[in-house]
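Re: that backbone. Tokens:
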């Protein structure tokens, strides 16, 4: 054996680098939530400006994911991954150095743009590195663990850094992590994993769907503060609908469409993405409402709020590790439905939180149950969403599943935040502030449990259907724990 072959990094090192990239993306999604009051005071932000510190990232991320996935397929996934991580890291440092609201919001948008390149490229590279079978199942288990743990770790790290050194350090920490990931990916992800693809870039389709997603996410996030009857919100949602129709027409006639219809006729791609969107509709809302309840009702400090997320993160990692094994034993349908019902049970438990409660009684137990269900469901639904996809579409499939989760999350958070705010407003007439807030959170958690219960029933109907074969050479069939047994 030659010296070069002995020193070549294995797929485990590459998976670690790719998982770290996904962890960093998820970390940036939640790390600012606990620090928002300090950011608002430090930069003199208005209520609307404070909201856009969060929205700017989610808007750019959600709107550009499909484009990021397709660019990765055409230009090379490793190349796009490295460029995305570099942009992400530079934007994070710029956010920490921001001296005005405009600079901070622009930096957050640049972060989201980098994340939209990272997420689909990294998932496609994982699919390239691990062929169908148990190895891919374990790899997707790691992927699910870091995806869920990143959200919980963001709350912990955000609270600790804000309390110790101030809000700029949450961005410095993310930026430092991004540059470490950049070095690891450059060293460990093989150059020949995936070269540039063939075909043309669908510029009209990309422009139409990016603008449609931008209008949709902007309308949904604005509705949380302005209400659903606001003219700007209605106009934005109407524009999103019109642009979606334009996008469909373009895709039907373009020789190399951004989102080819064959993708939806492959395996269980459509089923997986529908269920991922429904799961995402409560996922993002969970990490929004739970820290607020801990801080605004239970009176926890930013640091203690973050520490309170550790059991959720630990159960998430455990569930992700167990997901492929459970699916192999009982089948995909039973695994997904049991996981969704487990998370629904945890959220139903959270819907009984009290205004004068405690973390140990009201949060700890439900968090563990939610973490287990969330992670197992996410791993299996990610596998469903890429099942049977041809190699040339792997980046696009990764972009699509991330888009489904992100758009589902935007819709869910907008609806649940409006619902919770309405209940809190009505309750505040006769109750104290903590009691009114708790009433809103209880309704949000209860509605989330109902959504997941309905998703489990839908999963029974959809997953058991026989998947359609791909017309291209598949790289992802069978998905781990999916096609083995679907009972």
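Recovered sequence:
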């Amino acid at each position: 054996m030659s010296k070069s072959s002995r020193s070549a990094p294995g797929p485990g090192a590459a998976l670690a680098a790719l998982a770290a990239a996904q962890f960093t993306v998820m970390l940036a999604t939640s790390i600012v939530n606990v620090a928002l009051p300090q950011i608002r005071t430090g930069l003199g932000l208005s209520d609307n400006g404070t909201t856009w510190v969060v929205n700017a990232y989610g808007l750019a991320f959600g709107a550009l994911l499909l484009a990021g996935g397709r660019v990765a397929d055409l230009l090379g996934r490793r190349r796009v991954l490295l460029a995305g991580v570099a942009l992400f890291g530079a934007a994070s440092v710029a956010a920490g150095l921001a001296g005005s609201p405009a600079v901070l919001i622009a930096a957050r948008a640049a972060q989201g743009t980098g994340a939209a390149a990272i997420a689909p490229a990294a998932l496609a590279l994982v699919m390239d590195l691990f062929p169908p079978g148990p190895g891919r199942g374990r790899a997707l288990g790691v992927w699910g663990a870091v995806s869920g743990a990143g959200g919980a770790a963001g709350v912990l790290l955000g609270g600790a850094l804000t309390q110790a050194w101030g809000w700029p350090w949450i961005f410095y920490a993310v930026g430092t992590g991004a540059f470490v990931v950049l070095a690891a990916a450059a060293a460990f992800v093989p150059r020949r994993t995936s070269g540039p693809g063939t075909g043309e870039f669908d510029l009209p389709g990309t422009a139409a769907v990016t603008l449609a997603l931008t209008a949709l996410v902007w309308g949904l996030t604005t509705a949380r503060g302005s209400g659903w009857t606001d003219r700007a919100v209605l106009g934005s949602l109407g524009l999103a609908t019109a642009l979606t129709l334009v996008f469909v027409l373009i895709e039907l006639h373009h020789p190399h469409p951004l989102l080819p219809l064959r993708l939806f006729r492959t395996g269980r791609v459509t089923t997986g993405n529908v269920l991922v969107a429904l799961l995402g509709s409560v996922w993002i809302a969970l990490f929004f409402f739970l820290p607020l309840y801990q801080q605004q009702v239970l009176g926890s400090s930013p640091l203690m709020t973050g520490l309170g997320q550790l059991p959720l993160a630990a159960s998430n990692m455990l569930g992700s590790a167990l997901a492929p094994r459970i699916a192999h034993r009982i089948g995909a349908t039973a695994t997904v439905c049991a996981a969704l019902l487990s998370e629904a049970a945890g959220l139903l438990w959270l819907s009984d939180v009290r205004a004068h409660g405690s973390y140990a009684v009201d949060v700890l137990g439900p968090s563990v149950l939610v973490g287990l269900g969330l992670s197992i469901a996410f791993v299996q639904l990610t596998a469903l969403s890429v099942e049977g996809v041809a190699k040339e579409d792997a980046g696009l499939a990764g972009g699509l599943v991330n888009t489904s989760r992100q758009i589902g999350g935007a819709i869910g958070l907008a609806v649940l935040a409006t619902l919770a705010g309405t209940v809190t407003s009505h309750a505040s007439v006769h109750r104290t502030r903590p009691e009114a807030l708790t009433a809103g959170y209880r309704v949000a958690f209860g509605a989330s449990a109902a959504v997941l219960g309905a998703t489990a029933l839908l999963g029974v109907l959809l997953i058991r259907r026989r998947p359609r074969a791909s017309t291209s050479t598949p790289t992802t069939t069978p998905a781990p724990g999916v096609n083995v047994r679907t009972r």
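Confidence is low (pLDDT under 50) at residues 1-6, 470-487. The chain has two domains: 8-201+258-463, 202-257.
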